[in-house]
Amino acid sequence: MEPNLPDVVLWSIPAFVLLTVIEMVSYRFHPDEDAAGYDTKDAATSLTMGLGSLGFDLLWKIPILAVYMGVYELTPLRVPVLWWTVLLMLLAQDFFYYWSHRGHHVIRILWACHVVHHSSRKFNLTTALRQPWTSATVWPFYLPLIACGVHPAALAFCQSANLVYQFWVHTERVGKLPRPFEYVLNTPSHHRVHHASQGGYLDRNYGGILIVWDRMFGSFAAETERPVYGLTKNIATHNPLRVATHEYAAIARDVRAAGSWSERAGRVFRGPGWQPVPRPGAEAAVPVPAPVSVEAAGGPAPVRAEAPASVTAAAPAPAPEHTR
């Protein structure tokens, strides 16, 4: 029997709208010169990406639900939907969300999906709505829950609750919370770090509802300096189609330019910043200019060490096409 659980995203839409309007008004009457704030085109792009993701998610859910239901029917296990089992399912879903989120940062073909959410150089509540249109790469991470007897509808409820929770952490209007909350929960402070592009902040704070997974698995970073939002190589477009697909296009370019099958695999399945090791044949001799004598100027000859005729220098690797 399918669990009868509410659609928490649908019920939360009025709160999304109200909180976004309040945040916009707060910037109007209490501007913060250091905060990223709002940009009309950027906010419109985020809203368009969010609306588009709703439509594309309906398409992806058809085959994903078929797989989930197949696995659910095959497993002899069943998890009843009770108040306390729902809490346990939320905890388990958040754990697997952490690994899904982390995987979508460290495997480039998965990053091509998730990069959409990081493509804004602003950080406000509309950024939470900037969702990918290719989220079909997420479902394998939750197969263990289905195999353990969690009904797909119960999983969908937990995923929706996790998504709704993360809406409010996309803001600069909330500072650090009391230490107990900051230690356990994902907060705006922690999530600002996650969206930052500084080297020390990259690939940190993957948690959805809880930040304890990051503390346990070594991916936590506290907010110390003000974050710089966006990608290490930002895209100069507000075109939703390009925002949704630009990293896939970059992967295709890199694969076409690759010199071997191992490099092609690396361009797809290694990290977004991966570069192949330069081949020995790529080295070139660089002559060392002969020392200039000052004897012709009437002064003493300088004392100098013998220099080799040439040194070898590795040719620089081509600049990566990807954004990070």
Produce a short descriptive summary.
With 324 residues, the protein is mainly alpha-helical. The protein is built from eleven helices and two strands.
Describe the protein in words:
The chain has 324 residues and is mainly α. Helix content is 48%, strand content 3%. It is built from eleven helices and two strands, in the order αααααααααααββ. The protein has helices at residues 8-29, 40-74, 83-106, 108-114, 143-147, 152-167, 179-184, 188-194, 212-217, 240-257, 261-269, and strands spanning 283-287, 310-314. The protein has a two-stranded antiparallel sheet with strand order 1-2. Helix 3 (83-106) crosses helix 6 (152-167) and helix 4 packs antiparallel against helix 10. The chain is globular and about 60 Å long.
What are the segments in which pLDDT stays under 50 over at least 5 consecutive residues?
284-321
Let me know the average pLDDT. Answer: 88
Taken in chain order, the helices and strands follow as: HHHHHHHHHHHEE
Alpha carbon gap, first and last residue: 44 Å
Label the overall shape: globular
> Percentage of helical residues?
40-55%
The helix count comes to: 11
Strand content: under 5%
Largest sheet: spatial strand order: 1-2
Global structural class: mainly alpha
- How many β-strand runs? 2
Work out the radius of gyration. 25 Å
Major beta sheet, specifics?
2 strands, antiparallel
